[in-house]
Structures are given as C-alpha cells and as structure tokens.
Specification:
By secondary structure, this protein is α+β, with helices and mostly antiparallel strands. The chain folds into 2 domains: 2-105, Alpha-Beta Plaits (2-Layer Sandwich); 113-158, SH3 type barrels, CATH 2.30.30. The protein is built from 3 helices and 14 strands. A hairpin with a 4-residue loop joins β11 (125-131) and β12 (136-143). It is elongated and about 75 Å long. It comes from Marinobacter nauticus. This is Transcriptional activator RfaH. InterPro entries: NGN-like_dom, NGN_dom_sf, NusG-like, Transcription_antiterm_RfaH, Translation_prot_SH3-like_sf. It holds the Pfam family NusG.
C-alpha cells in the first residue's frame, strides 16, 4: 500500500473524503484549528492543512483506481508523466505526528505565565490575558509596585 495525493474540487474536500470512505478507500485529510478575526470577534475554525488535496492509500493494482476520477468531489490524481506520484509513508507519518504535537500545544492560554523577549519590557515575567487582534496580546506585568495591563506584539512573547 502506498500513499498518493488527489486534488479535490474547490470547497469539496469533505465531500471527496466522505465518498472515498464510502468506497472503503483509506483517506487522510489533515485539518488544523486556526483562529481568525471576523467582525471584530475571534473565532476558531478547522481548515485543511493542505488546501485542495486529500491523501489516499492504495495498491498499484487496486481496481479502485478506475473509480477515483469519477468519485464526487475528486478533481484529479496528482501525477507526473501520466503516472500517479507516490508519497513515502514516512512523510505521512511525520505529518500525523506533527499534527498531534500542534494539537497538544494549542497556543497561549489565558492565565499562562510568559516572559517578554523584546521591547521596553524585555526580560519581565508576565501573565497572558488575551489576544488583541492578529498580532498583539494583552498581558499583565508587575511594574512600579503594581500590576499593569499592557499590549505587546505576539513576537515579543516567549512562553
């Protein structure tokens, strides 16, 4: 069994996976949770790690190859010189293990102790409060005998 990539039709990745699984074809459609700001509110959404592509695990001699092109949601088989391009098992295993690590980390959580690595508050310990847009965060620092709420760039945070 070897992994291959299929290109799916625009916005039909889930549909392609569903129809491939209905045909008992092993699929891998990696998704990650991303945060986006919509109408001033932070929302979490699952998005494909490789937009437009689904991975399938098949034998070269499997009769399912003939059905792949006509599967709903599938656009084409990724090929070179009219031959499906195989993907090493190690690559797929690495993607799966990396996704597990990302899921475990989950970003900075409110109340987490952090250190500021850049800017005027460099070296100070702080407590993460919340995100403030795409590139900034609100943190609490102990400064001048009391706790101060300040906005810092996300790049200056070292967790």
């Amino acid at each position: 069994m070897t992994w291959y990539a299929l290109q799916h039709k625009p916005a039909q990745g889930d549909r392609a996976v569903q129809h491939l699984q209905n045909q008992d074809i092993a699929c891998f459609y990696p998704k990650i949770e991303v945060e986006k700001i919509k109408a001033g509110k932070r929302t979490r959404k699952l998005e494909p790690l490789f937009p437009g592509y689904v991975f399938v695990n098949l034998e070269q001699t499997d009769p399912m190859w003939a059905k792949l092109r006509s599967t709903r949601g599938v656009l084409r088989i990724v090929s070179f010189a009219n031959r499906p391009a195989p993907i090493d098992d190690e690559v797929i295993d690495h993607i799966k293990s990396s996704m597990d690590k990302v899921a475990e980390q989950g970003g900075i959580k409110p109340g987490q102790h952090i250190e500021l690595a850049e800017g005027p508050f460099k070296g100070l310990d702080a407590v993460f409060l919340s995100y403030d847009g795409e590139e900034r965060a609100i943190v609490l620092i102990h400064f001048m005998q009391k706790q101060q709420s300040v906005r810092v760039s996300l790049g200056s945070i070292k967790s």
